[in-house]
Every structure is written in C-alpha cells, then in structure tokens.
Amino acid sequence: MGRVFEDIDRLDVEGHVRRWSSPDADKAEGEVSEWMAAAEMFASRICDAAERLPGERWPEVASAWSSLLTAAERATGSQRAEWLVRDLWLRSRLLGALGPQPGAELLERDPVLDRALDAMPMTQAEAAALGPAWRDLDKERVLELRLIKRLLAPARRIGYLLVEHPRRAEFLAWEAVLPSLP
Fold first, then answer.
1. How far, in Å, CA of 182 to CA of 180, rounded?
2. In sequence order, what are the residues at sequence separation of 6 or more whose Cβ sits closer than 8 angstroms to the Cβ of residue 8?
C-alpha cells in the first residue's frame, strides 16, 4: 500500500481529495514519517487553495482530510496526539485566514477548542500542581504537560474568535496554567 505516498508532493487539493477518499487509503500502511509528510502536504495544499475553494467543495475536502488522519492513526497509533494536533492547527490556520463559515466543517470555530479541551491528559488542577515542579517529574509526565501546550496552541491562535464560546472560562483557566508548564 505504499503507493498512496507516491508523488504526494505533486498533488493539488483535488488530487489529495481523490487519494484520501479512495477505499485503499483506509488500508494503507506506512512509516510515521510518510504519514506526517502526507498530512503536511495535504494541509499545505488546503491552505494554499482555501480562498479559491468553492463552498460546495469543503465537505469533500474535510472528509478526505479526516480519512487521511484516521488512516494515519490506524497505521501508526496516536503518536502522542499528533494527528489531533495537526487537525487543530489546520482548522485554526483556516479560521484565521477565512473566518468561521457555517456548514464548512473545517471552518467551524467550536471544534478547535472543544476537541483540545476534551483531549487534555489531566485535569487543570493536576497540571497546575505539577507544572512548577516539572523538572522533577518523570519523562511521561513532562510529555503530558507539554501536550497541554500543544493542544491549546491552535485555540490560542484564534482566541479572538472564541470570545463567545461556551467553554471560554475553561479555556481561560487552562491558559492561566500555561506559564508554569515546560
């Protein structure tokens, strides 16, 4: 199934949509680096074409993007939430460039914050207690604390769009913890 990665750098948005919408994409195997390259190329193509992409194309693009990330996670594991973080970054980049657009899944503001908060590896109270002493923690705990920053970074980028988000208070509470994290 390595063929799904062939000429990945030469595909435009439509080529990526076709590639990652095919039934074979779900069965693809590959190294983590191949999946990361594929995700990076597709995300780049989406961003490059975003302003020219007709509204009716967004559902197919979103579906193909989701298929790529799902296949990558199936083939390689979560990679410390790598695929989720890539999704959040793409969404925040698109929202920053185009603003929210109802009906276009990748251009909805709420999932960026909701999915980040839902994926937190610990409670805010735990992070606040562990953060200042992170140098004394084992590697796994330090990586969990770093994941918190990685999860929140895309939402922080579009914070101005989240002013009326129902979970804004929770977001602000997490932001207050960030300075003490590694």
1. 7
2. 19, 37, 38, 41
**CB proximity list for 62: less than 8 A, separation 6 or greater:** 104, 105, 106
pLDDT tens-digit map of 67-86 = 999 999 999 999 999 999 99
Sign of CA dihedral 117, 105, 52, 57: positive
Q: How far apart are CA 22 and CA 33, in angstroms?
A: 21
Query: Nearest to residue 76, comparing CAs of 109, 132, 23, 35?
Result: 35
Query: How far apart (Å, rounded) are the C-alpha atoms in residues 10 and 105?
Result: 25
Q: Is the dihedral of CA 112, 114, 117, 121 positive or negative?
A: negative
Residue indicated by tokens 């302003």: 51
Q: Taking a C-beta distance cutoff of 8 angstroms, is the pair 50, 12 a contact?
A: no
Q: What are phi and psi of 31, to 5 degrees?
A: -75, 155
Buried b (16+ CB within 10 A) or exposed e, 125-142: eebbebbeeeeeeeeebb
Q: Hey, is 77 helix, strand or coil?
A: coil
First to last CA, the chain: 39
Candidates 172, 79, 177; CA nearest to 134 is: 177
Tens of pLDDT, residue by residue over 133-170, are 999 999 999 999 999 999 999 999 999 999 999 999 99
